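Class, discuss our next protein.
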Amino acid sequence: MSRPMTLKAGWKALAPFFRTSAQAGRWLALGGFLAVLTLVGSLGLLGLSGAFLTGAAIAGLAPATAAAFNFFMPGAGVRFFAVLRTVSRWGDRVTTHEGVFRWLAGLRVWLYGRLSRLSPNQLAGRHSGDLLNRLMRDIDALDNLHPRVLLPLAAAAVVLSALVLVFVMVAPGLAWLPLLVLAGAVVILPLAGWWLGSRLLPSLIHQRAALRANLLDDIEGLEDWSLHAPAWAQQRALTLATSDAWLRTQRHSARRAAALRAAVTLGIGLLAWVALGLLASEPTTGRVSGPWITALVLLLLGCAEALLPLAGACLDLPGTAAAAQRVQQLAEQPPALRFADQGPQPVDGSIRIQNLRFEWDRHTPVFKDWQLDIRHGEHVLLTGESGGGKSTLIQLLTRFADPQHGSIQVGGAELQSLDEVTLRRHLTCATQFTWAKTATLADNLRLARPDATDAELLSVLALVGLDPAEMGWQDGLSTWVEEGGASLSGGQRRRLSIARALLTEAPITLLDEPSEGLDLASERELVQRVTAHLHGRTLLWVSHREDLNHTFDRMIRIPA
């Protein structure tokens, strides 16, 4: 089990998330106000009902007092507090949830923006399950902060402070009782919850992340696991062990939360008995009437409604802090590549590389003093042995990585001096790792150019051999594409990627193994269509097949 999280570390992790956007903040503030009204309605209903029933019972002892007793005002007050409690509780749930949903959505956009600054190589160093867990589950865990901790804590502090004033006015000698409840809500309960959950809840967060990563490994490698029974048995045992540990931690956490709630209930009950005993011990003083004795005791008992929800929330707070810590660690990761805020504008589609040196690590050098010169509008076939650096060159040209030495110029401007918007507008690329999102065919294409018309989308699909009519897709551009492009074949996903690249109409187009998996006739047809479409614009076609050289202006072979 992991080391307990200290209060200092928890405060440091949670502090950046206390702030909310203005839009979400308004909803949460309204929710906090309604939470105060809910507690006022609950305590008012309980106290007034008890006082009313006690007063009615006392008045009924004699005909004269029964006739003089006012049934209408207390009855109206009971109805008022009942309606207030119901309406404000409903409003609290609606407004608080709306504010939290807006806040979490903003957090996801913020975190995704931080992730978008990282290079693909940085992201590749993290497990996809870990990234998904931080973007989804860890941010979901932060919903404990405002609706379950901060807002109820603030509401409890306001209402219990008012209760102290009530005791000061009616029974000043017993004002220490609601003061003790107030201290329990604001100080004792959060500290007790933190102490009980500081070791368990962070472990629960990390175990959940590990379980999700293992499950994703199980699913993504299902075909491979089916071919090797011993490896699958080992992986299955690892996943089940992680699941068992997670469930055990959940069980321990639930038991501690139940124990903390039981302690709160017991403490409130004991305080109510103390109040009843002290108030009943001086019946002849006349300072506190019978109805007020009942009301004050019931008001103390009603404090449980404010404290019991806080018990579980405070116990979960270390887990919330651990989730916030994981989110913050990901958000604060510095990008390996930095773009200029405003760079020069390339003048054409030329590419010039001089004295290029690049290596992924000192054991795998890729380029050493390499030169390349491509004129504007030239169509070049780039070939070479597998692992010779063809895809690496694409990553360098798109600035997914920077060389250790040398110069790369695009349109006469140094590549590293360009801002990212200019680079992506001037240079488009379709890599060999194709991807599609869960959406329509049109939505996937408009990732490249949101303002493209349906006619333009159909035209580029026909160009790459994905005409919906010829493919038998009756829904046309509304054809649904499943996650990752699972509903498409490998060749269709590749053509969709090419279509996206062509839609941008950039001066330079880079295509990495675009015809992989196609037969020779389909490949030649695709080459002819693409080169004709890109006439006057620069094209770098990467392929391990050299028999296409007659279609291009020039063929360059990267030496092994």
The two ends are 50 Å apart (CA to CA). The chain has a mean pLDDT of 87. The chain is about 60% helix and 10% strand. Residues 261 and 308 are 6 Å apart (CA to CA).
